[in-house]
Design a protein that fits this description.
Layout: H1 3-49, H2 70-86, H3 90-109, H4 116-119, H5 122-137, H6 144-149
Helix pairs in contact: 1-2, 1-5, 2-3, 3-5
Length: about 150
């Protein structure tokens, strides 16, 4: 290999590395924005169980205080959503929320019918997978933890 070939190879590798770094930064920002939007929306789901925003029946009815699993599930959803939103312990919180939504799907929706489209469990199934994805990939950008590091 000549000096010119080595220089060309080094330049191509440097360009690839720069592209990879730029893409990683974009992915981090996109993941952070995704995390914020999803957890913000999910927080309302938890608040509805506590009687806010129309409650569980659209009439403002809350799940009875201390009832299992509804009331505890609503509290876990709300606390978990806040943690994921802020990016504080986001991975463990997202993992727990994934499990909460899987539990909700299999105990509330799946006994009604096999497929989510038939048992109105699409949202529970989607949230379960979304939070599992966040648990695996991490919180991305815009976390409270990163803000305090600076």
């Amino acid at each position: 290999m000549t000096t010119t070939d080595t220089t060309t190879t080094d330049t191509a590798a440097a360009a690839r590395d720069a592209r990879a770094a730029r893409d990683a930064g974009r992915n981090d920002v996109a993941l952070g924005a995704f995390r914020i939007v999803v957890s913000f929306l999910f927080g309302f789901h938890g608040l509805m169980g506590l009687g806010f925003f129309g409650g569980v029946d659209g009439q403002g009815t809350a799940v009875p205080l201390g009832s299992w699993p509804g009331w505890y599930g609503s509290v876990i959803e709300l606390v978990g959503a806040v943690l994921v939103l802020l990016g504080v312990a986001a991975r463990p919180a997202a993992f727990v929320l994934s499990g909460v939504m899987a539990y909700a799907y299999f105990t509330v929706h799946q006994p009604e019918a096999l497929l989510p489209i038939h048992n109105t469990g699409e949202l529970a199934a989607v949230y379960s997978w979304v939070f599992l994805l966040l648990a695996v990939l991490g919180p991305g950008a815009f976390t409270l933890r990163r803000a305090f590091r600076r």
